[in-house]
Amino acid sequence: MNCLVGQARAHSNIALIKYWGKIDSELHIPQNNSLSLTQDAFYTDTKVTFSNDLKEDEFYLNYDKQDKNEVDKISRFIDIFRVIAKTKLNCIVETHNSMPSAAGFGSSASAYAALTKALNDALNLNLEDRELSILARRGSGSACRSIYPGLVEWQQGNSNETSFAVPFDNADFPICTITMALSGARKKFSSRKGMQISVDTSPYYSAWKEYSKKSLDDIKKAIKDKNITKIGEIAEQNALAMHSLTITAQPSFFYFNEDTLKAINAVHNLRDQGYALHFTIDAGPNIVIICDFADANQIKELLKLEFPTKDLIISRPGPGVKSLESWNY
Ligand code: DP6
């Protein structure tokens, strides 16, 4: 038997300036640039094995064999690599997430970034990071940012070749996040569907595009000044603007649950007491706090008083995608 194996780890990223809407939904070319922080606490490990013994592709997520629907999705993505490598071999994909899937933890970002690197290695493609970013984007837009460490900008471009992420800042200042795992349930509305409805129906969509350009300029300046409070302030406003697109869409929908609102209130109360913290929220109910690492433990303990049964996970800026020497699953 002839096997080609590749294995890689990619970390998730949390967008501080959100990607919410596409100009090309096939290629995932976005309507605006976005900027994210790669997180060290959350990652996906993926192993791919190509073999001429396999009759079809197989996909295992956290040891669970996935159904045809999921396999078909991933097969279409692997096809892009099969074309580049000029092979027809089938493949087994084994993936392990350190966080719940499809609950707004950015697991699709780390998943497609890890898969891209593992496929690159297995098929000996030797692609540069920029190519990896372009390919990861084809799986899920936000995955293009998980190729890089620290603070990363996705430059929207206007074609497959021109839409990719670039490293913006290595985040060597004490910025950190605290993810409040309020719900691990799968979301009803995927980001993909949610952003499409927002583009098509929210009367505020064009305002969002203008506004997100300004948010991006402002946050870049705050990052260069290493001003964590300012970064948090801009990220929080940007997230709320994104979520207002869902509320004003037709049909209206939202990703918050009761705990999300309770957590937003908790952040407001702590700010009133003089603590420096802000939040962002992706397409799910979980809140991600942005604060200085020096304050993180204290803020976590204070939030824990209100959410004693929930996991609160502190994350520092994380590394870019890497090949794995060993496979420990
Ligand atoms: C709210 O990257 O999951 O997290 O490209 O359709 O796969 P697809 O969408 P996805 O959307 C992420 C949306 C977001 C904001 C962000 O990460 O920028």
UniProtKB/TrEMBL annotation:
Family assignment? Belongs to the diphosphomevalonate decarboxylase family.
Keyword list, A-Z: ATP-binding, Lipid biosynthesis, Lipid metabolism, Lyase, Nucleotide-binding
Instruction: Say if the entry is tagged with keyword Protein biosynthesis.
Output: no
This chain's source organism reads: Fastidiosipila sanguinis
Q: Name one GO cellular component term.
A: cytosol
Give the Gene Ontology MF terms in alphabetical order.
Answer: ATP binding; diphosphomevalonate decarboxylase activity
* The Mvd1 C-terminal domain, residue ranges: 182-311
- Single Gene Ontology BP term? isopentenyl diphosphate biosynthetic process, mevalonate pathway
Q: Which Pfam families match?
A: MDD_C, MVD-like_N
The entry's protein name is diphosphomevalonate decarboxylase
**Domain Diphosphomevalonate decarboxylase-like N-terminal span(s) in chain numbering:** 10-165
> What EC number(s) are associated with this protein in UniProt?
4.1.1.33
List the InterPro entries hit by this protein, alphabetically.
Answer: GHMP_kinase_C_sf, Mev_decarb, Mev_diP_decarb, MVD-like_N, Mvd1_C, Ribosomal_Su5_D2-typ_SF, Ribsml_uS5_D2-typ_fold_subgr
Keyword Lipid metabolism listed? The answer is: yes
